[in-house]
Specification:
binds 3-methyl-2-oxobutanoic acid; eight-stranded parallel β-barrel; TIM Barrel; single chain; elongated
Length: 290
């Protein structure tokens, strides 16, 4: 049976130069297949807003929605390190509310850690949640919950000043007690410095190869997500096109009487049809008085 990784395993992997591989998952079956394939971690990202619910971004996602999906992922991958993503609004009020929401996420879904977006701005929240005994993963660079403020889904840290601001954010997240951090859509030159200078595991999405591991959105690597494909995505399949072909073939088969065929059909036990015909003749058919 696969052994679930702990924060100490992840830390050791960084120290040994071994890459951790993770992706998002939002449902039981995907989680089960990912665990069987040997995925190190699964993130129930608030990207589910776009990937599953069809919202234009992550902002509308609620804590309840995140928790429903996380419970399914936990059931599908009981031996995988599962990260719960705190959605927008779940840590933007008081520190106490943020801690209570993180507690609820842990209690209901059995996550191994929670992730939240932001740097210096959220350091006090990270501190309070980790002081309560929960593992927190930070997320700096492009933070999709702030795309309004950032001017869209754009690469971050491409100028010296912007890069310095991201490094300060990363430092603040580390100092606040995060055990690991995700860096998104940032030039590799910047991520390399962060991963070298901070002792905790630094994971990347669109942040180059010099991280301690990579995460991808499942619907991107499968080629299912239709709205847009960021530059940093590698599509390992084009399941969107395959799915469309399957749906068209199914529609065609039903409309032309090709499906269901004999092999998809349950037949009556031998001799029972004759009995049924006799019963009906005697007036036993449904709705008829005897
Ligand atoms: O919500 C999400 O899926 C994320 C990705 C950027 C990994 O945070």
């Amino acid at each position: 049976m696969k052994k679930k990784l702990t924060r100490f395993d992840l830390q050791q992997m960084k120290e040994k130069g071994e890459k951790a591989v993770w992706m998002t998952a939002y449902d039981f079956t995907t989680a089960q297949l990912a665990e069987r394939a040997g995925m190190d971690m699964l993130l129930v990202g608030d990207s589910l807003g776009m990937a599953v619910y069809g919202y234009p971004g992550t902002i509308p996602v609620t804590l309840d929605q995140s928790m429903y999906h996380t419970e399914a992922v936990r059931r599908g991958a009981p031996n995988t390190f599962v990260i719960g993503d705190m959605p927008f609004g779940s840590y933007h009020g008081s520190v106490n509310d943020a801690v209570q929401n993180a507690v609820q996420y842990h209690k209901k879904c059995g996550v191994d850690c929670i992730k939240l977006e932001g740097g210096t701005r959220v350091a006090h929240i990270i501190r309070a949640i980790s002081d309560s005994g929960m593992l927190v993963m930070g997320h700096v660079g492009l933070t999709p919950q702030s795309t309004g403020a950032l001017g869209g889904f754009k690469a971050q840290g491409r100028t010296a000043e912007a890069a310095l601001a991201i490094m300060e954010d990363a430092e603040a997240v580390y100092e606040a007690g995060a055990f690991a951090m995700l860096v998104e859509a940032v030039p590799p030159e910047v991520t390399r410095i962060i991963a070298k200078e901070l002792p905790i595991p630094i994971y990347g999405i669109g942040a180059g190869v010099d991280c301690d591991g990579q995460v991808m959105i499942v619907s991107d690597i499968l080629g299912i997500f239709q709205a847009f494909t960021p530059k940093f995505v590698k599509k390992y399949a084009n399941l969107g096109a395959e799915m469309s072909k399957v749906f068209e073939a199914y529609i065609h088969d039903v409309r032309t009487g090709k499906f269901p065929a004999e092999e998809h059909t349950y037949r009556m036990i031998d001799g029972e049809l004759r009995k049924l015909t006799a019963l009906r003749k005697k007036g036993h058919s449904k709705g008829k008085k005897q």
